[in-house]
Amino acid sequence: MGTYVLRRILQMIPVIIGTTFLIYWMVFSLGDPTIGRCGERPCPQAYVDKIHAEYNLDQPLIIQYVRYLGKVLHGDFGTSFNGTTVADQLMNRWPVTFKVAIIAIIFEALIGIAAGILAGLRRRSFWDSLVFVSTLVIISIPSFVLGSVAQMVFGVKLQWFAVTATQGTWNQLLLPGLVLGSLSMAYIARLTRNSLADNLSSDFVRTARAKGLSNGRIVGIHTFRNSLIPVVTFIGADFGALMGGAIVTERIFNIPGIGGYVFQSIQTKDATAVVGTITMLVLVFLVMNLIVDLLYGALDPRIGHE
To answer: What is the pLDDT of the chain when averaged over all its residues?
Structure first.
C-alpha cells in the first residue's frame, strides 16, 4: 500500500506541472491581464509597467512560471490586483464551500444509493419506474431553475430554510447543499441501480444461490460492495467539483464560497486570483482521485495496489 501511494504521488508531479503551466499560459500569455482594469479607457502606462514588473510579466513565460511555481511550493498562490493574497481568500472561503460539499455528498449518497438499491432489487416494478421517472425529471431541470424554485418555495413561502447564506453557517447552507446534491443524487441512483442489476445477473451470484445462500446475504456481501465501485468513482469526482464551488448556486443563495470568488475574479480580470484558485483545485482533484483509488481495494479485495 505504501509503495502504491508513493508511486501515485510521484505520478502527480508531472500532472501538476503540466496542468498549472497550461493554466498559467492561457491566463497570462493569451492576453494582457491589465486590459479592462481601468474601465473602458486604457490604463496609464505607468500602471501597466508596475503590474508587469510586479508579476514578472516582462520576463519570458517559462521564467514567469518557474517563479510562480516556486511561490506555490511555499504556499504562496500570489497576490490579487486589489492587494489581498489569494491564499488568504481561499482559506476564508473554502470552509464555506466545504460545508456545502459535505451536505450535498451526504444527501446524494444516502438517497441516491438507497433509491438505486430499491430499483435494482425490484427491476421492472413500480419502484423501478418511479426511480427512473423521478431521476429523469431532476436531471432535466437546470440547476439555476431548481435553486431559484427551492429558494422561493422552501425559503420564502414555507420558511423552512434560510433564503441566503451570507454567514456560511450549517443551517444557512442546508438548502443550497440539497440543491447541489439533487442532480448528482439522480445520477448515483441510476449508477447504483444499473451496477447492482448487472452484478445480480453474474455467474458468482447464481453460484451463491445454488449453494443456498439467502438473498440478503447475496446482496449485502457479494454484490453490494462491488456495485459501489462506479458510485464511489462518481462521488469522488463530484466532491472535487463541489470543492471548486458551484458558481450559479452560490450566486443564487449569496454564498461567500470559492465559486463566487472565481466568478468575481473573472469579472474583474484578476488573473492571479484565477490561476491561484484553479491551481488549488487541481491539487484537490488529484487528492480525491487518489482517495477513490484506495477505496477500490477496500470495496473489492481483488483489486490490488502493489
So the answer is: 83
Q: How many structural domains does the chain have? A: 2
Provide the pLDDT confidence category of residue 306 given band limits of 50, 70 and 90.
low
134-181 per-position pLDDT tens digit:
998 988 888 888 888 999 999 899 889 988 888 888 999 999 999 989
The verdict on 174 and 34 lying in the same domain is: no
Contact predicate 78/42, CB 8 Å: no
Please report, for residues 118, 204, 205, 216, 299, the alpha-carbon distance to residue 221 in angstroms, rounded to integers and kept in the order given. 16, 12, 11, 8, 10
Segments forming the whole domain that contains residue 14: 2-73
Residue 85, SS3 per DSSP:
strand
Sign of the torsion angle spanned by Cα atoms 180, 181, 186, 191: positive
- Kindly state the cell numbers that stand for 211: 449453494
Alpha carbons 83 and 105: distance in angstroms, whole number: 35
What is the pLDDT, as a whole number, of residue 241? Answer: 83
Give the integer Cα–Cα distance in Å for 150 and 178: 9
Per-residue pLDDT of 271-297, as tens digits, reads 888 888 888 888 888 888 888 888 776
Residue listed under C-alpha cell 476564508: 92
- Residue 141 identity: I
Do both 188 and 279 map to the same domain? Answer: yes
**CA nearest 146: which of 183, 110, 197?**
183
Three-state DSSP class for residue 294 = helix
| Residue appearing with cell numbers 450566486 | 251
